Amino acid sequence: MAPMPPQASRPILVVDDDAKIVRLVRAYLERAGYPVIEAADGRAALAAVARERPALVVLDLMLPEVDGLDVVRAIRRTGDTPIIVLSARGTTSDRITGLGLGADDYLPKPFSPAELLVRVGRVLARTRPARDAAAMPDGTAPLTHGELVVDRERHSVALAGQLVTLTAIEFRLLVALLEADGRVLTRDQLLDAIYGLDAEAVLERTIDVHIGRLRDKLDDTAAEPRFVATVRGVGYRATEPAPGASPR
Fold this sequence. Notes:
The chain has helices spanning about 20-30, 40-50, 70-80, 90-100, 115-130, 170-180, 185-195, 205-215; strands at about 10-15, 35-40, 55-60, 85, 105-110, 145, 150, 155-160, 160-165, 185, 230, 235-240. The protein is of the alpha/beta class.
């Protein structure tokens, strides 16, 4: 059973140009207690995201006006609203592309509405703590790595004093690497850290895509990485801080 939604939660935006699918998804979500809004094309979806600030977006990829992948890109440029892709594009490359652009989950059509409902609950459960951390301080000290400062209470990342916008998944990935304190984490361990119970349904190669996006945002793409090192055939680890860097 999916977790019950909180009272007065923001709506879930369902985006699909197939009215039958929208009605089906809406019926299941509303039956579970989630408020729902709709959009039938990519342009309307982006307008709804800006206007309504939805708690989550259920998004088809094959949309008129603006393609679904471009919608994912646009949402990720401005924030970390959770996104579940619901699409007939179900190949491995399609899933990797969608998740790599910043989607939080990917469910190919045809789909089970009951499974979608469970995934909605799980995505909200694993992303809400990151978004609401500032309201629930736990005394956890920030993680530091040279010029990089990660505040787990406020879900903020700063590089050389400049804020860096990460998605909830990228933030969890960075925290897991820094908390490992130089130990190598396998792809399976990183999947568990960022996806939890959903890890078995996620492709292992997805971690490589998220690492690539994280490195881009941290300007960590040089031959000698400053923050995230690849251990070939095993996984990833945080690099050793440069001499003279601030200790964690």
